[in-house]
Structures are given as C-alpha cells and as structure tokens.
Specification:
Elements: E1 2-10, H1 20-24, E2 30-33, E3 36-39, E4 60-68, H2 72-82, H3 85-101, E5 108-109, H4 112-115, E6 134-135, E7 153-158, H5 161-164, H6 168-173, E8 184-189, H7 196-209, E9 214-220, H8 227-239, E10 245-250, E11 256-262
Amino acid sequence: MPTRRTVVRIDEELCNGCGLCAMACAEGAIAIVDGKARLISDSYCDGLGACLGECPQGALTTEIREAEEFDEAAVKAHLAWQGKGLNARRHEAKAESLHAACPGSAALSIDREAAGVGTPALQQDSETPSRLGNWPVQIMLVPPTAPYLKGARLVIAADCTAFAYADFHRRFLGDPLGKLGAGRVLLVGCPKLDDVALYRTKLAQVIGSNDIREIEVVYMEVPCCSGLVRVVREASAEAGQQIPLTLTKIGIRGEVKERTTQEAAGKRD
C-alpha cells in the first residue's frame, strides 16, 4: 500500500548514465535504461540514500512523496530473479559503465601502416616502434563487443610485465606491419589491485562471444600474479569455451622464466 515516505529522486537532465549509483545501490533499485539512471521500483528503494554521494553530477537527491513501502522480501526476490546476486550485479554494472562513460575508452583498431604511426622515424625517442594494435587495453575498459576482438588471438598480460620484459611489444604483440604477430589483441590488468570478479565476468563475455582463436597469458613470477591465470581459466570455463592457452611467466629481473602451452583454457590441471 502506498505511503508517504522518503525515496530517491533522479534528475534525468543532470544524469550522464555513468552507472555509479547503480553500483552503490545494494537493493538493485536503480538501473541504467536508455543511457539514464532509473528507479525501477519504489518498493526496492529504502530511501536511505547510500547512492547519493556516488553521483558525480549531483543528479540524485531524496524526496518525500507517496510511494510503495520498502519491501525487503521483494528486493531479495528481485536480486535472485536477476540470477546474479548483488556482487555479480555490481560487477556487470561497473563493467558497462566504465567503458560507456569515458570517451577515452572508445574501441579503436590502430592501423599503423595506413596512419604512418609506429615507424622509428616518427618515434624519435625510441628505436623500437609500437606494435599495439587496439585501444583500450585495460580489461575493465574493453567493450566485449569491440570489433578488434572478433576472431582475435588474445594476449592477456599483467600490468608489470611490459615494464619488466624489455622486448614486450616485439615478443608478444608481433609486427602489425608484417606477419609475426598480426591480429594479436592486448588486454592488461592487475589481479592483486583490481577487481578480479569483474575481470572474470568481462573476460567470459569476451571469450564467449568473439570466437577467440588462442590466448596467451603473460604474468610475473610473484605469487599474486598467478591469479591472472586462474581468472582466465575460470572465465573460459564460464563461457563454455576450450581455447588453446599459452602461459608465459616473466621474472622480476626481466627474463622469461617459464613458458608452457596447453590444449585449452577451459580445462584445469
């Protein structure tokens, strides 16, 4: 029965659809619909306003009006019906909002030959041309629908590997102007500092919908970095895909410590 109480109010003129409020709402009362935050049911909103401080645009306030009473049982049923639970729902909302809200994360294939980019003459500070062929590279920012992912050979690398291994571009990305590493797409992340559950969700989407040809995981020898290998395996299994997998371990002194190739990423040892 409707009663006069406090609920969240969303100013659609100010809202830019970043999704931070949806992540902050523990009850799942807010969703991004058509690029704007929406209160999907009054009965899911407890009116406490935990989401208010998360909005960078100041689009969220509270108001007192006639609304359905807060229904905790309905909230639990709502989250269960979504089939993902609170944490997974937040991970997916975060993944969607990160690449949707930032202009710098727009998917881009880099045609170095056509643009004349990446030649030593244009990179006066370096004798080694860049071989990066895609943008963005951060796992959290890559849209699962990015065109460069279709049929790609993935290199999923821990952040530190490119700093530790001096010849990273030539060894792992190959030559975009030639044949050695053509089609290799780079994704990077840190399994210790970043949200590995989000990584697992994102990578499962990438692997499950893009006919990935092979995956090479490049990680550091430090124990925490092996978490990247585990996440890739779990994401492949979640996607129901068995993809040829190469594991390359980099030492902190910059050498390749170990390299193994396995039949499929979706299988466990």
